[in-house]
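I would like you to help me understand the sequence and structure tokens below and explain how sequence relates to structure.
___
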Amino acid sequence: MNEDFLKTISQHRIAPAAVTGADTVADLVDGAFSSYNAGRLREVCRVFTQKLLQPDCTVGLTLSGALTPAGLGMSCLIPLIRAGFVDWIVSTGANLYHDTHYALDLPLHQSRPNLDDYKLRQHDIIRIYDIVFDYSTLLDTDAFYRELIADDAFARPMGTAEFHHEVGRYLHGRSQALGRPAQSLLAAAHEADVPIYTSSPADSSIGMNLAAMSLKGGRMQIDTLRDVNETAAIVYAAKREEGKSGVLILGGGSPKNFILQTEPQIQEVLGLAESGHDYFLQITDARPDTGGLSGATASEAMTWGKVDPDKLPDSVTCYTDSTIALPLLTAYALARHEPRPLRRLYRRRDQDYARLRSAYEERIAGGSDRPAERGGRAS
């Protein structure tokens, strides 16, 4: 065997120590997660902790799939936010709607997946696979959003980050008044000034209630175009300050595209020189060969300008369930890395937006109709 060549393709010899039962999660991942998707999960944990959590990296997180109903907002996402390990988020509206149940102390229950759905319907019970809750939980959450949206603070157009920040403000204040933790992703994000965007704001129960209020003359409008430029501005500001941009993608779907399209928006549409996200980490159960975005690899994203081609070695996809991987990743990161100072990107939204706009206007004023060359091309 050619030992010199082997060293170029192998990280180390597989010779793990025996699992004892006293191992920490981080030690177990480092020691026993050697190959296949366990090996990929170890790579995700290490790249996240050693690369994305460097002081110069701005970390974006996407949420798809029913994560908050399973309690992962409380168990994992809030600790990551409070540790400064997540700087901005793109989520489905459904995850934020179900997060609100916990903030309002509306219980969800563990059950099993093989229940009789006809009987559940007869007894007004809602099921999300093996999670069940009373239909009144939906009605009470709907009523909360309609009452909140009626407030004058929402009687104007706003992007989804501002909308979620205002909702989080109320939930955070409500928990303080009641003297108990909010247990809410929205409230924790408000407290840490982590902006949360929803790529399809009408595609959830929150959007449905916003639509209902518009029938009653409500003046609130979601400015999705503001969101496109605002998210691009976050990435542009991170890269212009000699920093890096990393994304951790849980699942796929619309949130994945929305966080990745920030780079084509900068390069292709606005015509500003850029090279792509520096770090791409994805947990997904979607296959790449069906052509769907949820399974698309980092190298495919590179061809669109979404990922820097020079940084592909730091891009990892692990094919597993986010509900398995996220608790392991959270425990690993908290064990292996000290908390980072909060970046508080929500407070910088207007400043970063103005910076992107100024750069775009300067390019247009220069008389060039052609976008700048994309940087970071592989030689």
User: Anything to note?
Assistant: The first strand starts at residue 57 and ends at 63. The two ends are 31 Å apart (CA to CA). The chain has one domain: 25-363. The first helix runs from residue 3 to 9.
